[in-house]
Amino acid sequence: VDRVLRGRIDDRFSTVHLGGLNLDAREARGVRRIKILGCGTSYHAGMIGAQMIEEIARIPADAEPASEFRYRDPVVDPDTLYVAVSQSGETYDVLAAVQELKRKGARVLGVVNVVGSAIARETDGGLYVHAGPEVCVVSTKCFTNTVVAFALLALHLGRIRDLSVADGKRIIEGLRRLPSQIDEILRDEERIAELAASYAQAKSMMFIGRVRGYPVAREASLKLKEVSYIHAEAYPASELKHGPLALIEPAMPTVAIVPDDDLLEKNRAAMEEIKARAGRILAVGHREHPKADHSIVVPKNETELDPILLGIPLQLLAYHTALSLGRDIDKPRNLAKSVTV
Ligand code: F1P
């Protein structure tokens, strides 16, 4: 990890690039803002990454779909570090955004899975996420690995800046616990499959989450759409009352991302609003939720790292929903493995 993060690009790596961040401590301290760009699942991983960078490194950060960014003649700020995210490294919208940024003199890093891909070659440095090949069209393990890569980036930047030694150690220990906690989630697969079969008849589903839970809700809804073709909407839980509550009724189940964090009470209140309108709720968090009809419980980690584990049962939920509907999960209709036009 340290080698990947600390290394500067070495000439030996120049044909594949991404040999390291290519950012020394002085440069890293000078970063005033981080802007993350990606499409689809990679955009959602970037949203989580932006939150981790804000929480752990205390650098203002946000994510935007690269497909929007490239068309709006963006103002490029020299103190902003841009990060392009892509599983395939070939997605044209991301590549075009990188080229536009480079043309305007920005420094762009990549967080990419496929070694030597076009985006990896165009960026000034960055991280390979080493998820291995994604054999199916939709990105799953790469999503998880990309979020872990962002946690490492946040930790690295935090350590160069003001992150305390104790917090750094706490996050490292949290990262070390992930593999066994992921195994624990995977052991729950049979129950998740049963839940998926019971929700698979829905015509439409709502996904809600607040702050760390919101990008997880977005990715879960995208995964469900992509492989099961069930219509799914994701909203920040606090936006429910600004309109989407009108959609809640018994035929519109809600998947609520409700981790044990400082927002738990607020999230419980959102579940009450849904129950008051006879909505069915599947809660995903760190405990059984009496207000929900069903709960999926994932192991608790450090709060900043919660999104990593919360996403995994939702990938399984989408997979088993699609399976129970007889969909071709590896080759969903109308989707390309990488969108190169
Ligand atoms: C981005 C992406 C995928 C999505 C689909 C189309 O790909 O939007 O997230 O599942 O395959 O492309 P990438 O830039 O991460 O390779």
Can you describe this structure?
With 341 residues, this protein is an alpha/beta fold. The protein folds into two domains: 2-163, Glucose-6-phosphate isomerase like protein, domain 1 (Rossmann fold, 3-Layer(aba) Sandwich), CATH 3.40.50; 187-324, Glucose-6-phosphate isomerase like protein, domain 1 (Rossmann fold, 3-Layer(aba) Sandwich), CATH 3.40.50. 44% of the residues lie in helices and 16% in strands. It has twelve helices and ten strands. The protein has helices at residues 2-6, 25-30, 40-57, 66-69, 92-103, 118-122, 141-160, 165-186, 189-199, 213-228, 264-276, 306-324; strands spanning 33-38, 61-65, 80-86, 107-112, 126-128, 204-209, 231-236, 254-258, 281-285, 294-297. The strands form two sheets. The chain has a five-stranded parallel sheet with strand order 2-1-3-4-5, sandwiched between helices. It has a five-stranded parallel sheet with strand order 7-6-8-9-10, with helices on both faces. Strand 3 (80-86), helix 5 (92-103) and strand 4 (107-112) form a beta-alpha-beta unit. Helix 9 crosses helix 12 (306-324) and helix 10 (213-228) runs parallel beside helix 12 (306-324). The radius of gyration is 20 Å and the shape is globular. The model is unreliable at 1-17 (pLDDT under 50). It is found in: Cytoplasm. Keywords: Aminotransferase, Cytoplasm, Glutamine amidotransferase, Repeat, Transferase. Its EC number is 2.6.1.16. Residues 23-163, 195-332 form the SIS domain. It is an enzyme of class 2 (transferase).
